[in-house]
Amino acid sequence: MITCVRCGAESDSDDYCDQCGASLAPIPPVVQMPSIARACPQCDVPFDDGEVFCETCGCDLATGEVAPDEPPERALGWELTVGVDPRRWRQYASQRSNDAPPPTPVAMRIEEATITLGRGAESERRADIDLAAATRDTGISRVHARLEPRGAGDGWLIVDLDSANGTMVNAVRVEDAPCPVYEGDVVFVGMWTALALRRS
Amino acid sequence: MSDFSIASHHNEHLPEGGTEVVTMLSITSAYGATTPSGEHSVIVIMGDKSGSMRTPFDRSADEPVSKMAAARDALSAAIDHLADGTEFAVIAGNHQAEQCYPEEGGLVVASDRTRAAARRAIQLISPGGGTAMSTWLAAARELFESRPDAIRLGILVTDGKNESEEPEALDQELERCAGVFQCECRGVGTGWVVEELRRISGALLGGIGMIRSSAQMQQDFSEMIDTAVAKRTADVSLRLWVPRRCEIVDLQQVAPVIEGLMGLAAARSELVTDFPTGAWATERRDYLVRIRVAPGELGDDVLAARASVVIGDEVVAQTMVRATWTDDPSLSSPIAREVAHYTGQAKLSLAIRKGLAARNEGRTDAAEAALGAAVRLATAADNTEILELLERIVDVVDAAEGVVRLRSGVDLGDEMELDTKSTKTQRVKRTS
């Protein structure tokens, strides 16, 4: 049985939903995450994700200050963006009672530690981060998934905690084993929630 | 036992906002020469013995032999084509049905002995009385109802119109017969009504044909029996699943003949509809399906239908009818060749029937417009058989533009033959 992302029905057929006819193939990520300034604050030269210092003028891209002679400690802070995949939001429109525009993405700083993700703040089995607060996604399980640092600023692993609707990294469903998440990957949970991780 | 396949031919690219998917479904079945059928056939022949059968085919023609005499000979010859093991019976009908063979009622298994006995009984049929076809169908139905698992095929031959009963009686009997047996219909001479036989063949998944001479009758009867005997699987259905919020707008068989099937739809569940197609031999049939789908977003990939061949409740072949939306007109505007071909053939058929109806009602302008369109379509499709028949009804002024004039002194038989053959289609040519 596969849960159709469009109508939410359980489908016996695994190619197209046997209720609404939608393709059950994984949807390629089309989510647009909010981007921060992509040019150096000092010299205005664009830079790529993951760079800490401007390659042209050498300033700290976060602060605009010229780098000290000695390289600093590697930044270990991460930013988790909790957003909405607009296409899934649209596909689930029939399940919602309104045509409201998708909620705006919320970015939050997270430390390198094991973090549980889920829905609801009041529940006894409460996750560290309430994703539904940002996306109003009722398809997220109470305790849905867990993020684990791979260590030494080397990114993250995501573990699906036997959630009802599963967890996908890009177009691949996370099965039992922890799945690495790199910068630029999009993690899908629930009906329309999309997550992205980036160094900050 | 059988080898069925089904394929969908359509342009899956819909324009932005497009909600109609049109596809040609092609079903083929193949049986090896030696594969045992597993099911046996029951064939019941319903022959007209009304008083009008005493007259010759065509009073003006120089064929003096009566239709009854020709039918006796043709039926006797056709009986020899019944394969051993086939169960059969012959009903002679006028304003009531009488079983001609076996006289004691019921069915008999074909063998040298029973075929000879049937031939003797057929030679003794003497014409008289009126025509009430519902009684013939009812008698046949009772025989078929005793063999629900067999391949059940009826053959009805008449030379006159159904004048000894109210039309409702025939309609009611057709409702009872639907699903019990299939019926192939033949009209002999020019005294019968095309629309009437079409109603029977349409309701009972059969074909319709016109017989104009004793030589033609001999050949046609034998071919009908051969076709019936060749059937190997009974009660095959075309099953369509369409998603929620979608709808089957139209389904018609388009080859070998055009036959609307919407009236035979049987809902299996909320999303699944079965359309009976009767018994199959090694053959191919094509269907044109129109489905209204819920509008999708650009790039969406959906299933507009799942089309299956079903025997009993077993799916023996299946294909998917996909749809996707694009803003590229070069993708969405082409019509699949197969769909275009049969859409043209359906238009031709409709133009002929509309034209003949207008002609009979004395509406000359409408008749010339419709038959002109038919000439134009038949010319474009290079359908020489239909063109020749059309040219007996109209004088063609400009074939390419479809300008025609009605002819006077048209032979009634020619008109009926054109009407009868108007639903026969040419197969879409394969691109090699």
What do these coordinates show?
The complex is a heterodimer of chains A (200) and B (432). Chain A is mainly β and 200 residues long. Chain A has two domains: 31-72, no CATH class; 75-199, Tumour Suppressor Smad4 (Sandwich). Helices cover 5% and strands 26% of the residues of chain A. In chain A, the strands form three sheets. In chain A, strands 4-3-13-12-9-10 form a six-stranded antiparallel beta sheet. The longest helix of chain A has 6 residues, at 86-91. Chain A is globular. The mean pLDDT of chain A is 78. Chain B is α+β, with helices and mostly antiparallel strands. Chain B has three domains: 3-33 and 234-334, Immunoglobulin-like (Sandwich); 41-230, von Willebrand factor, type A domain (Rossmann fold, 3-Layer(aba) Sandwich); 338-421, Up-down Bundle (Four Helix Bundle (Hemerythrin (Met), subunit A)), CATH 1.20.120.1690. Helices cover 32% and strands 31% of the residues of chain B. Chain B is built from eleven helices and 20 strands. Chain B has helices spanning 67-79, 112-123, 133-145, 167-177, 194-203, 214-230, 329-332, 337-360, 364-380, 384-391, 412-421, and strands spanning 3-9, 13-15, 20-30, 41-48, 87-93, 97-101, 108-109, 151-158, 182-188, 208-211, 233-241, 247-255, 259-260, 266-267, 272-280, 283-292, 301-311, 314-326, 394-398, 403-406. In chain B, strands 4, 5, 6, 7, 8, 9 and 10 form a seven-stranded mixed beta sheet that branches. Chain B has a six-stranded mixed beta sheet with strand order 2-18-17-11-15-14. A five-stranded antiparallel beta sheet of chain B has the order 1-3-16-12-13, with helices on one face. In chain B, helix 8 packs antiparallel against helix 9. The longest helix of chain B is centred in the last third of the chain and has 24 residues, at 337-360. The mean pLDDT of chain B is 92. Classes of the chains: A mainly beta (200), B alpha+beta (432). At the A-B interface, loops of A face strand 17 of B.
